Amino acid sequence: MTATANDQKTGRAVAGEELFDSLTHFVVAHNGRPHECAERIADQAVAFLVTAATATVPMVPSDDVDLGLHALILHTKEYAELCKRFAGRFLHHNPKPGGGARDPEKVAASAHAMKAAGFMVFDDLWTV
Q: How far is CA 111 from CA 19, 40, 87, 125, in A?
């Protein structure tokens, strides 16, 4: 059975409205993204974290989703709670040493893992 938009999970539902609204506001205020775009980024960041908790592939966010992931990490209490709930442990942020470009294949594999986990994925946010 293929998932439809109505039976796919969303990061927004996982986060809850209070955290979701705070993440969205953070992305708007600190990254200058329009509200609707910031909502989609926040959604994907939470879905990314939940998927990363049990993923069997290296999870690498897109440039856009990384904005939301950083916002989520800065919500330390909520981030730690989500990590414990879905991974059973704290998930550390391990950026690529020395920075540099993201591997497009790993970014695509991450989006695919999120889809396989049942999350709605906004493909246009998963570019490098």
A: 22, 14, 18, 10
pLDDT band of residue 7 (cuts 50, 70, 90) is confident
Please, what is the average pLDDT of the chain?
A: 93
Cα 79 to chain centroid, rounded: 12
Q: Which helix (H) or strand (E) element contains residue 3?
A: none
Sign of dihedral through CA atoms 49, 70, 35, 83? positive
Query: What pTM does this model have?
Result: 0.92
**Cα distance between residue 29 and residue 90, in whole Å:** 27
Q: What is the pLDDT of residue 5?
A: 55
Q: How many CB atoms lie within 10 A of CB 37?
A: 19
CA R_g for the chain: 14
What DSSP string describes 5-58? TTTSB-HHHHH-HHHHHHHHHHHHHHH---HHHHHHHHHHHHHHHHHHTT-SS-
